[in-house]
Every structure is written in C-alpha cells, then in structure tokens.
Please model this.
Amino acid sequence: MEIGPGEGHLARDLVAALRGADPELLARIELVLVEANPGMRRRQQALLQEADDLPLRWCSLDALGSAPVHGVVIAHELLDALPVERLIWREGSLQQQWVELASNGGLRTTHRPLPDGLHQEIRRVCSQGGIQLPPPDAEEGWTTEWNSALPDWFAAAAAAVDAGVLLVIDYALEAQRYFTARRSDGTLMAVCAQQAGLSPLDQPGEQDLTAHLCIELVDEAAQRNGWMVGDQAKQGEALLALGLAERLHGLQQLPGQQLAEALQRREALLRLVDPAGLGAFRWLTYRRGLPEDGFSLSGAQGS
Model:
C-alpha cells in the first residue's frame, strides 16, 4: 500500500521490479493506493493501466479501517506536507504564530498565547524526549514548527493496517538538529514547480508548503498509536544495504555500445545517495503485529 502516491511512478516501478524478480509473488499480492485527489487518481490510473497482472485498487485511509490490510505501507514525501503549528519565542514565552489579513490586502504573521491543548502536548512530548524548547540561546523571534498532525495520521494508519511495516521516506532531522538556536526560522518552505519558492505567505494557493519532520516527534506519535519503532537510516545507507553497490558494479559489465545508457543509469543511482541531495532523505520504519525481527533494513539484501 502506498499512501499519497503522487503521479504513481514509485508504484509502477515497484510492480515492474516485482514482475522481474518474482512473478509468482506478484500474483499473490494486492496493490492498494490511497489517494484523496481525483485528478491525481486519474493520472495514476493512466500510468498503471498496464499493471493488469495483479489486483489493484484505490481507496481512502478511513475506508481501510473496516477492512485493514496485512503488508508493507509506504509514505514517500507525504508527512512533510501535513499541517504544522508554527511556534515563535516572544517576550519570554513560546507563542502560536498565526496568519492574518494586512491593511494592504496581503497576508502577514501575528502571534497569540499557546492554546492549552497544544501547550500540554509540547510539554509532555518534550519532557518524555528530553527536548528543550526553545533551545538555549534562542533569541527573540526564534521560530520553529511542531508536527501536530502526526498523531491523528498514525492513528488512521494503525486502523488501516492489521499487521505490517510502515516505511516513511522523508526529510527529517533529530531534535538536537531541528530545535537549535541557529535554525532560527524553522524549516517551513514554499515549493513551486519543484523549486524553492518565495515566502510561504506569497501567492497563496499557488505554492506547496512543506516542513521537515522531527524524528523524535514522529517516533512518539507512532508509538502512541500502537506502532513499534524499527530500523532508521539515511537513504544512501538504506540503498547500499539493499544492494546498490552491486547494481553500480553491474553497470560496468554492460557492452560498449550501451555506454551512454550505463552512464545515464549510474548518474541516476548516484543522485539517490548524494548526501547533499536525495541521499539525505531518512527512511524510518515502524511495525505493528509483527515480531521484533519481522523486518530489517540492514538485512533486506539477504532476506
């Protein structure tokens, strides 16, 4: 199952890989895509129309609550798009940042005291995780994000999965790197046409907004909703454990007339592990209804 499959390219490639590696396995599994956007669903259906050798269906996460699945769930670049709270350090206290209409018709930020529920959640999670918020030496106006939508999302995912593994692939940082005085404006970013955009308040509705995940907050939300924390790794490390080095070596064995293709494929693979780019993605695994040794990134190549 993939939640938020985008254009459907990852699902298509997974089907192709399974078809080549183990056609018999492909006949015994079902691909479930969770997509709320009708337009994106149509694109996925068009891309996957040739995948007629395995059961394939689209549904909502809520609908799966009445018929939960067994298997592997992928959330690729999904959780960083969930709503976040913006917190700002003002006059000696953490406050909630809001957006309001300015006199010129544009948008501007303002702030107010934290609602009781949010304040209690922050205190509880920080106390359990040893997180200091704000961090030492934070200056007036220091701002960060709080991944407040994660608990509800993990609860819905738990209701949809009776037993299996959840793989989260996203930009994520440890709390000690996420909540630092140096990161004074948080991680909130506007993205337009796959490029970093303008201020998040500019061109409302025309830009996508994204914020990095704090790993400790993800783990806490998962555990609170019945998931057990599993292996975690940077994407480059995970792909090497899955045999990427062997794939790169295999490209050297292609005949000379396929040199251009080999170089192109090698460049694409290296981009996936570039520590300054996609290699910085984090792979976070969570499991429910499985034994502790039921899944391992480090043992994936030999399993």
